[in-house]
Amino acid sequence: MEGGKPIGENVVAAVTKTLDKLYKEPLAQLEALINATGLPVYKDPKTGALLWVDVRELRLRFTLSVNKIAKFVEGLAEGKLFYTQCKRCGAKYFPPQADCPKCKSSDMEWREVTPEGELLTWTVINVKPASFSYHGDYVVGIVRMADGFNITAWVEADPKTLRPGMKMRLVVGRRPGENYITYWFRPQI
Ligand SMILES: [Zn+2]
């Protein structure tokens, strides 16, 4: 894995700091705009469309229980990706499921994902959610894994070089920007 340290508790503080820094400049511009015109409205430089910027800050913070999929989180910290397989009916799940939706069994086995697959399809994201706005355009792809299920994740590649069926390698590490451990694909060389 890349630059692996155990999952830290200061992730929230780091994200908050990054977002605060990121929005400092646009917020200052917004304030100047409101002072000058009395309205938080500006013209989109690309389309000329009038845009209203809501001045109320909306922050979402949520907590999800990962207790039943603790193995998945621990695996990420070790640079490994795990899926679950139902011991009763054999169904495989990624993201891992603690209970089998097919046969309702909770007798699941944790298995490490074989980090290879073939690119099925992909798209370039150029209109980004605010939390990813500091990234350049990025590629999201669906890869058919050697283990027989699909994984949707970012693809680190120039989209012009991508072809369906291309061999992909799964990477687990800290992605620049968020700095927390996640997984993505790279073309296999
Ligand atoms: Zn099952």
Automatic annotation (TrEMBL):
Q: Where is the signal peptide?
A: none
The family database entries (SUPFAM superfamilies) matched by this protein are listed as: Nucleic acid-binding proteins
Among Pfam families, the record links this protein to: OB_ChsH2_C, zf-ChsH2
Domain (ChsH2 C-terminal OB-fold): give its ranges.
110-172
Task: List residues of the ChsH2 rubredoxin-like zinc ribbon domain.
Answer: 74-109
Its recorded name reads 3-hydroxybutyryl-CoA epimerase
Superkingdom is Archaea
